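Data follows
____________
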Amino acid sequence: MRHGETLFNRLGKVQGWCDTPLTSQGISDLKKTAEALADVHFDNMYSSDLKRAIDTVHLIKDGNRVSQIGKIKKFPEFREVFYGSFEGSEIDHIWKATSRTAGIRETSDVTEIINTIGIYKFREVVKKADPRHLAENTEELNLRMARAIDRLKAATQREKRVLLVSHGDFIKTLGIKYWEQSDGLHDIPFPTNGSVTRGVLTDSGKFEIVDYNCPPEEFEA
């Protein structure tokens, strides 16, 4: 599940590993999400280690009527994508800088950029466009996603259904790689705040996303 709306979401600023609080609108929306999931049983709940995700998972936990959830475990591996020195910048700025670095028409439309140069080159170009070259590239992000899935598998050996709160671009990147409807090359819709993406993780460690960016009311107990 993606966290609720934050201050930087509202202001249109880049928010990767930097963190801003949930807005009043974000909290209000999450209370509706919590009510939609109130009668869905979860064996456990997890989140990334960023506060916006932690606050979100606690709102969902507090609203659930049928699950017995103890202390929330935080996984740094499920943090948002890291944007390096672009953190806190205007979102339009990072994508215009990326398109210029890629040598294509300057645009703030990230879908156009990805579909023009491909998702793998896109991550490399973002890192190159970052003045300090700290932003995560494809290899770094793929390795972190693999670690995240391995960490989740180890933690959920005895669990059947869990909820994990993560972040928009991280969930989207998982979707590009693991969603059955993605070709693995082009862009897919960005998850909305509070949306649910359902994945299946087998005992052998195979991971597949079967439902992507869905409103929580679509999920039944």
Q: What stands out?
A: Helices lie at 7-11, 24-36, 51-63, 91-102, 110-117, 119-129, 138-155, 168-178. Residues 7-82+160-218 form a domain with the Rossmann fold fold (CATH 3.40.50.1240). DSSP finds eight helices and five strands in the chain.
